[in-house]
Design a protein that fits this description.
about 120 residues; alpha+beta; PH-domain like; 3 helices; YegP-like_sf; DUF1508 domain-containing protein
């Protein structure tokens, strides 16, 4: 099952990624000023998956990717794929698992690890 992961960028904006059950990123959303906007966008995407259009592109270096369009608005951009088959597998995984995907929120500014000085002492 896929998972939505909400994180905060260094510029202070929020984003979410949709990852496969193996932990591989499938697509990344646009930036949001507030965290709850991420959650609302995820809910719209989950409920409107039947209305989603996957617009396929080829980059200058030959890699394939897609943009997710919902109600004439670009919602997210996929990672780059090397073959048409892998691109289609990414799209199929989204369609198959997005409605039952869970949301993980890693956007809090609390550091997971203690400061280096606490671990290694003053260098």
């Amino acid at each position: 099952m896929g998972t939505f992961v909400i994180t905060k960028r260094l510029n202070g904006f929020y984003k979410y990624e949709f990852t496969s059950r193996k932990g591989k990123t499938i697509f990344i959303s646009n930036d949001f000023e507030l965290r709850f906007e991420c959650e609302e966008d995820i809910d719209h995407l989950k409920s409107g998956i039947n209305e989603v259009f996957f617009m396929k592109f080829k980059s200058k270096n030959g890699k394939l990717y897609f943009k997710i369009i919902l109600k004439e608005r670009e919602v997210a951009v996929s990672r780059k794929y090397t073959t048409q088959l892998l691109l289609q597998k990414g799209i199929d995984e989204i369609i198959r698992t997005i409605s039952k995907s869970e949301i993980l929120d890693f956007s809090s500014s609390d550091d997971i690890f203690p400061p280096a000085e606490d671990v290694f002492g003053v260098l």
